[in-house]
Specification:
The chain is α/β, with parallel strands linked by helices. It has 8 helices and 9 strands. The strands form 2 sheets. It has a 7-stranded mixed sheet with strand order 1-9-6-2-5-3-4, with helices on both faces. The longest helix is centred in the last third of the chain and has 27 residues. The radius of gyration is 18 Å and the shape is globular.
Length: about 240
């Protein structure tokens, strides 16, 4: 929620814009220290060539790390927050505003669902994908359980006439937060492996059982791709 006072509102916007611009520069420098190893990128190239709607799916653990590799692909990120006055007046909300502006500065298209009704936000997100804007989604977000894909991503993909591109991620060296999702960041000068899987096309059956089954298949695929990413970094275990 922006401050009601026009002077404070202008100051709020100026401060968050300034900090986010500085953050984007620092992240670009940070990114230049990382070595990226990408396997299966042809899957994304073919989808772009065919102008096929697609949603990139990555576990929440690696979302921030994925920003370094995917920022130039014009992906749309869906963002929302608790609809409470306490949250909107908190420091967390201020930091969120800086984060969203930083993502935009890095080239992402951010759909801020908090500016309207939550149901409208989801529908607008689906419409954006339908018009050809690729999206980035964490199937186990926004609050877990960790590494458990929710049916929502399958439903959105089906409604948007879109396929899902699962991507497994691995970092050779990283720091891990204490959040529910073990949010991880690659350390400077580390290697980052991205394994792009084959596109998954949702079935037309949107029943609860079918969505749950397809979500479990996506979950298994993401786990397999993450194991492959670690094989690239560390080699196969005997």
């Amino acid at each position: 929620m922006l401050p009601a006072n026009p002077i404070k509102r202008t100051l709020y916007r100026a401060i968050t814009s300034l900090i986010s611009s500085f953050a984007a520069i620092l992240l670009s420098i940070y990114q230049s220290t990382l070595e990226f190893i990408i396997e299966g990128e042809d899957h994304l190239r073919i989808l772009r060539t065919l102008r096929k709607n697609h949603i990139v799916a990555i576990w929440h653990t690696f979302v921030d790390g994925a920003v370094f590799c995917l920022h130039h692909r014009n992906l749309c990120i869906y963002s929302d927050h608790p609809r409470t006055k306490e949250y909107e007046q908190s420091v967390t909300h201020f930091v969120r505003e800086i984060g969203l502006k930083t993502l935009r500065a890095l080239g992402f298209d951010v759909l801020d669902a908090s500016l309207g009704k939550q149901s409208a936000g989801i529908m607008n997100f689906i419409k954006k994908i339908q018009t050809g804007t690729p999206a980035l989604i964490a199937p186990d977000g926004p609050s877990g359980p960790i590494y458990e894909a929710k049916p929502g991503v399958i439903y959105m993909a089906a409604k948007a006439n879109s396929c899902i591109v699962p991507i497994g991620v691995g970092f050779s060296r990283r720091i891990v937060s204490s959040n529910w999702d073990d949010l991880s960041f690659p350390l400077p000068f580390s290697r980052v492996a991205f394994v792009v899987g084959e596109p998954i096309i949702p079935t037309s059956d949107l029943s609860e059982d079918s969505l749950a089954k397809q979500a479990k298949e996506l979950e298994d695929t993401l786990d397999r791709l993450c194991f492959r990413a670690n094989e690239i970094l560390y080699g196969k275990k005997i």
